[in-house]
Amino acid sequence: MAESRNACVVAVMLVCALPGGAAAQLQLPGAVHGDHKAPARKVVAPRAAPEPVKLIPVTPPAEETLLGQTLTYDGSKGVMRFNRAGKNIVLSRLTLPGERLSKPGEYCEVNIEAEQPVAAAILGHPEGALRWSFALEACPFTADVLDGAVLVSSPHPTCDFVAADCRVSPVGLWGPPGDSIPDRLVKTLERERLQAEAALRTNFKVLVLQAGNDKEAVKAVTAEQAAFSAERDMTCHDYKGEAEHGFCAAQITQARSLALAAEYAGRVAEENARKAEEAAKKAEEVAKKAADEARKAAEIARKAAERAKANAAKAPETPVKDAKAPEPARQETPPKQETAPKQETSPRQETAPKDANASPPSLAPVASTPLDLLPKNVGPPPGK
Fold this sequence. Notes:
The chain is of the alpha+beta class. It has a domain at about 65-270. It is built from six helices and twelve strands. Strands 1, 2, 3, 4, 5, 6, 7, 8, 9, 10, 11 and 12 form a twelve-stranded antiparallel beta sheet that branches. α3 (about 185-210) packs parallel to α6 (about 245-315).
């Protein structure tokens, strides 16, 4: 024990005897060197705020891509043809495919013949694409104009022609025959489909952001988008040659992108209309308030006029003089006479200082009056 204590003392003495530089290098295990520098932190530049997602505008196709063309249902069945008659678009030919009422599954067709071509009613762009309506008595339908095709919808999913023993359905895509699309257009159709899908995704995001905290609107848009892919596959499944050219998918995607853009524009219009209505209500309230203030001011002025009239009626009438009496002539006062200036008094003559040795002044003798010369028995004056 004593040896270990002595060893510790010797070690301490040796440390104290070391020079300053050497002593500074002595470190305990795990200690950090005094001049150790911490690694410099990397300065990370703040991320720029992401740009807001903007709607990609989609131009609806022109009707000229359809005029005079022979369109078929699913690229293989039926016939639909449009032409221009003056300023109108007419349905010049229509053959609807279907199945027999007596034998379901057996193919049949109904040729719709009319004495005159059926003119299209222009319904505008309710879902982005130009929409025509054809009021056929047996089977009415609407057609949205796409690029070289029409997407047909109808309030009635099927139309029965009992005399022809045929049940038809015009609902679906009518386009060029599938086997007539040349190979050189395949890449063009693929590029158009990819562009339409990119616009579709972007416009979907814009609609969701526009809905904001409206959970019902977000739910509706999301549900429609989720169902779109399945609906497209169902619509294009039977289009002839779809796996080779993808014509149907490109047209349905374009129609969906147009519909989203139209929905966005409709919401913007509704929001602007709401703001305009609120501004109109506010302006009406301001005008009403100003009218109330003007009415109150007019009432105050009327009451003040009535009080003034009543006070004027109570006041006594003052007689009016015919002519004014002449004012008396003013008498002119004579000017004051100027007084002579006071004569200045001569200054007092200074007396000579008295001499102590001088003799007093002599008094002059006063003359006395004899007593016998004074009047006697002097009394009060008579009459007193």
